[in-house]
């Protein structure tokens, strides 16, 4: 189960970045939203020099799985 519709369409790092920022907007409080936005931005910068297509797809898949876990975590609390 993806956190937002369209996860299956994410194929590039920029699409992933936008997707994850949209996920952040769904989180319950402003503080939590800012925390995860910061984490998304940091991860994007860390991996910005990655040029191996297989590794990029692996990062995208893992990031979507992590976003799913985070969204479910906060959904259960509400």
Automatic annotation (TrEMBL):
Q: For the Complex 1 LYR protein domain, which residue ranges apply?
A: 12-68
Superkingdom of the source species: Eukaryota
> Which CDD domains does the record associate with it?
Complex1_LYR_LYRM9
Task: Give the residues annotated as coiled coil.
Answer: none
By its UniProt entry, which InterPro entries does this protein fall under? Complex1_LYR_dom, Complex1_LYR_LYRM9, Complex_I_LYR
Similarity annotation: Belongs to the complex I LYR family. LYRM9 subfamily.
Q: What is this protein called?
A: LYR motif-containing protein 9
Native organism: Cricetulus griseus (Chinese hamster)
Q: What is the lineage of its organism?
A: Eukaryota, Metazoa, Chordata, Craniata, Vertebrata
